[in-house]
Amino acid sequence: MTTRAATPPPTAPPRSPGAPPRVLAVAGSDPSGGAGVQADLKSIAAADGYGMAALTALTAQNTCGVRDVHVPPPEFLAAQLEALSDDVAIDAVKIGMLAGADVAAVLDAWLRRIPATVPVVLDPVMIATSGDRLLDAAGETAVRGLLSRCDVVTPNLPELAVLLGEPTARDWQAAVGQGVRLAARARLHVVVKGGHLPGDRVPDALVGPDGTVREVEGRRVDTPHTHGTGCSLSAGLATRFVREGDWYRALAGTKAWLTAALAAGADLGVGQGHGPVDHFAAVRTAVHDGGTAPVGGGWQPARAGAGVPG
Ligand SMILES: Nc1ncnc2c1ncn2[C@@H]1O[C@H](COP(=O)(O)OP(=O)(O)O)[C@@H](O)[C@H]1O
Ligand SMILES: Cc1ncc(COP(=O)(O)OP(=O)(O)O)c(N)n1
After folding, report:
1. Distance CA 41, CA 50 (A)
2. Which residues are identified as catalytic?
3. Measured between alpha carbons, how far apart are the two ends of the chain, in Å?
4. What is the DSSP code string of 178-210?
């Protein structure tokens, strides 16, 4: 592989007020478009950000499962990251699938070279909805090591348990307790997600390193089409944080958007397994209303039966 040393500009220009946040997703590819960098770029765009992507891995997957994973040489991830940061000022980073310890080590080294003020959200992708593993055991240890350069981590309940070395929480109270322990131990914010628990409520919570717990209420969308919800939440969160400057407000806004995207997912008709969410449900509604509906504001179900159960 040949890499060409770029000459960085003296200083990349700061973001002008009102310009879309420049958000980098470091993640794997999902050709079905529901998870991975494809979901990240859609989520960033839906939150009015400018999305960029450095690929850690290529998966051969669809809505039914993961068939194969190809991990390019880790040096090629380094080349992607350096080409980007030599040229572009990055406003936020979202990390998804890392595939293995070597990839995590390359990313860790790069993260420690970019300005410490760049917010970093880590979605510690370990297992897909289909049950397929997306990270090996050495990779789990490496992901724990990355936490010290991250501002927020967004594990689902099994991932939260792995990060702590504890059994998976079976109820919301136990899950929040684990979030408090991880936030204190790793000195960062933890988003605890209720998606894997039963019931009509699907709360999320932002746990601070000082042990503060702030919940965001949510209603369950009764749908099998939840492929990529974790990717979408973390990418949207990173993007909204740049404008909001507050993790709780960014989480609340992202969760409201994602609930509407989940409710509209069935209408997409993508695949025969766990289909994707509709990242652009609000935009689509606006287009079909002849441009009279507020973009990103007043989402309504596209057809009877597709909405959020009351
Ligand atoms: N059926 C659902 N209805 C509403 N929100 C959901 C549903 N499933 C997941 N979510 C939300 O999607 C986001 C991702 O959650 P989760 O499914 O737990 O993570 P992951 O995709 O990493 O397994 C969270 O904000 C969670 O609350
Ligand atoms: C390439 C790739 N990255 C991540 C995932 C997992 O997606 P996530 O949103 O964390 O989880 P699910 O909601 O799909 O479980 C993936 N499948 N592929």
Report:
1. 8
2. 193, 226, 228-231
3. 55
4. HHHHHHHHHTSEEEEE-TTS-SSB--EEEE-TT
For residues 213-236, average pLDDT: 97
- Pairing type for strands 65-70 and 50-62 reads antiparallel
pLDDT band at 262 (very low <50, low <70, confident <90, very high): very high
For residues 65 and 83, is the Cβ–Cβ distance under 8 A? no
> Domains (ranges, CATH) in the chain?
22-288 (3.40.1190.20)
For the chain, give the number of residues: 310
- 306's tokens: 């597709």
* ipTM of this predicted structure: 0.97
The binding-site residues of ligand 1, defined as CB within 6 angstroms of any ligand atom, are 156, 193-196, 202, 204, 218, 220-221, 226, 229-230, 233, 255, 258-259, 262
Order the strands of the 65-70 sheet from edge to edge.
Answer: 65-70, 50-62, 22-29, 92-95, 120-122, 152-153, 189-193, 204-207, 213-216
- Asked if the model's pLDDT at residue 4 lies above 90, the reply is no
* pLDDT at residue 306 tops 70: no
Can you tell me the distance from the alpha carbon of 203 to that of 197, in angstroms, rounded to the nearest whole number? 10
Q: What is the pLDDT of residue 3?
A: 54
Q: Considering every ligand atom shown, identify the ligand nearest to the alpha carbon of residue 266 and give its number.
A: 1
In this prediction, residues 262-290 reach a mean pLDDT of 90
How many angstroms separate the alpha carbon of residue 21 from the centre of ligand 2?
Answer: 23
Global confidence as pTM:
0.91
Q: Give the Cα separation of 287 and 202 in Å (integer).
A: 30
Distance 226 CA to ligand 1 centre (A): 7
Asked if residues 34 and 64 have their Cβ atoms less than 8 Å apart, the reply is: no
Of all helices (H) and strands (E), which one includes residue 65? Answer: strand 65-70
